[in-house]
Amino acid sequence: MSERVKWGVLGNANIARACVIPAIQRSSNGTVHALATRSPERAWPVAAEHGIEHIYDGYEALLEDPDVEAIYVPLPNHLHHPWTLKALNAGKHVLCEKPLACDAQQAQEMVEAAEDNGLLLLEAFMYRFHPRSRRIKEMVGGGAIGTPVSVRAAFCYQMGQESLADEGNIRLKPDMGGGALLDIGCYCVSVARWMLSAEPTRVQAQAVYHPRGMDVHLVGTLRFPGRCLATLEASFVSALQQTYAIFGSDGAIELPHDAFIPWDREALFALRGREDEVGIKQTVEGGDEYQMMVEHFSEAILGRTSLAFQPQDSVRNMEVLDALAQAAQTGRSVTLERRGKQA
Asked: Quick check: 98 pLDDT over 60?
């Protein structure tokens, strides 16, 4: 194996063009070898801009390329499962966009395929690689706010009436894995579980639904073992919210509304004491969390490190998302079995 992992990208999605392809090309240990698309003529400008030498007409052709070692899957949610399975069965490691799948059963099948093929699978929760996120995780684990008792997380934005009325909007199509919970609520569930180092045992939720059936605004609560609780909000119809806060017995950590995507500028958060009304500003040097993520995954492929979080973590995240969807649809609390501390 060479010192630089050769990547293949399935599809010409905006997240790939704007964030992940540039991140791979800037990385110290990877390069985009090929881009596959069903509209090659639209991909040539991207390939030219980023120095990608190979364009494939269709995803299957890329998976047959013996030089490709890792696949990035930025396809619509309902295509994560089938194309990740195809990539793994073709002998490729896979970095798959969030949410990993449309439900926990699909996610488990993807994890088992990775294990059966002896390959790596990672869900692209890039926020976990940012220096601020890692600093906060260390502070919470080190007792900076005492014993954690709750997390409050929100990822919301105003989609706009034109997009809400658009029949072709994939985020509002049930058969394409649409809805605010899957699209952005997955971040909120992930950060709550990560910061509390625990798995929820019971959930509740309420949602507002689009006429086509997908949730466009959802508020949920998670009960964790002991005295820990979390609340989350995911919305396509709200003013911007992109933040989380962790509250403990002795203080709190609160983030501005760039919590999951701070880009590469200086990142801030506030550390507040138990009785303080205003927190003390903390500053963390900025960085490209997408580049940090792809470099980490390449290092794992090269055998130089272990994955920061195992794919089974993504199955557990999907189980919580499934339970929240059920709770919102039925108006009842949903219990999650065999849960507690994270492994």
From this structure: yes
For residues 182-205, give the mean pLDDT: 98
Same domain, 145 and 250: yes
3-class DSSP state for residue 215? Answer: strand
Same domain? 313 vs 218? yes
SS3 assignment, position 53: coil
Burial 24-47 (b: 16+ CB within 10 A, else e): bbebebbbbbbbbbeeeeebeebb
Residues 62 and 209 in one domain: no
Same domain, 66 and 188: no
Q: Is the pLDDT of residue 338 over 80?
A: no
pTM exceeds 0.85: yes
CB atoms inside a 10 Å sphere around CB 54: 17
Distance CA 57, CA 129 (A): 33
Same domain, 116 and 227: no
For the chain, the maximum distance between any two Cα atoms, rounded to a whole number of angstroms, is 61
Would you mind telling me the total number of residues written for the chain in this entry?
343
Q: Please tell me the distance from the alpha carbon of residue 26 to that of residue 288, in angstroms, as a whole number.
A: 10
The span from the CA of 270 to the CA of 333, in Å, is 33
Give the end of a domain, one of 104, 124, 144: 124
Tokens 């040097």, residue? 285
Q: Which of 2-11, 38-47, 103-112, 315-324 has the lowest mean pLDDT?
A: 38-47
Cα separation, 294 vs 28, whole angstroms = 10
Residue 341 lies in a domain: no
Structural domain containing residue 274: 127-335
Using left for φ > 0, alpha for ψ between -120 and 50, and beta otherwise, residue 238 falls in beta
CA angle 212, 217, 221 (to 5 degrees): 130
Same domain (yes/no): 112, 182: no
Residue 343 is assigned to a structural domain of this protein? no
Question: Could you give the number of structural domains in the chain?
Answer: 2
Grouping H, G, I as helix, E, B as strand and the rest as coil, residue 230 is strand
Would you state the pLDDT for residue 133?
Answer: 98
Q: Which helix (H) or strand (E) holds 305?
A: none
Q: Are residues 39 and 109 in the same domain?
A: yes
Q: Quick one: 159 and 281 in the same domain? A: yes
